[in-house]
């Protein structure tokens, strides 16, 4: 399931495993499709074929998680701070960024960089003119305050 997440965090001592080989089955929930693009083909093959456990610290080294924290408390504090930082952004910008990232994630198989640039240009030309968020950012900066973004 972790491979389907946009942002992945763990504690240093978290335990991960692609367990299916130990269960005499082939992973069928997208792990084998997503994991190689995250950690590389060689690491994904080794993890899937051995079904070995690996720690949150190793998951960070493999780039499976973006942050590994020393404790559950530190993880929750880090996750909360990250959520607050994202929530403080323009909802339209966050939504658009996620859509473009998801589109481009398929780039290896389906889309070139040029396709991705065309997609984001189309997104921005469709969404930004109707958004007051861009104007609000500049106004808030001029007034030295936090922006108040509109809802989606």
UniProtKB/TrEMBL annotation:
What keywords are annotated for this sequence in UniProt? Fatty acid metabolism, Isomerase, Lipid metabolism
Q: Which CDD domains would you find in this protein's record?
A: crotonase-like
Show the SUPFAM superfamilies listed in the entry.
Answer: ClpP/crotonase (SSF52096)
Report whether Metal-binding shows up as a keyword of the record: no
Q: Name one GO biological process term.
A: fatty acid metabolic process
Listed pathway(s): Lipid metabolism; fatty acid beta-oxidation
**GO molecular function term, any single one:** delta(3,5)-delta(2,4)-dienoyl-CoA isomerase activity
Q: Which PANTHER family match?
A: DELTA(3,5)-DELTA(2,4)-DIENOYL-COA ISOMERASE, MITOCHONDRIAL, ENOYL-COA HYDRATASE
Indicate the family of this protein: Belongs to the enoyl-CoA hydratase/isomerase family.
Q: What is this protein called?
A: Enoyl-CoA hydratase
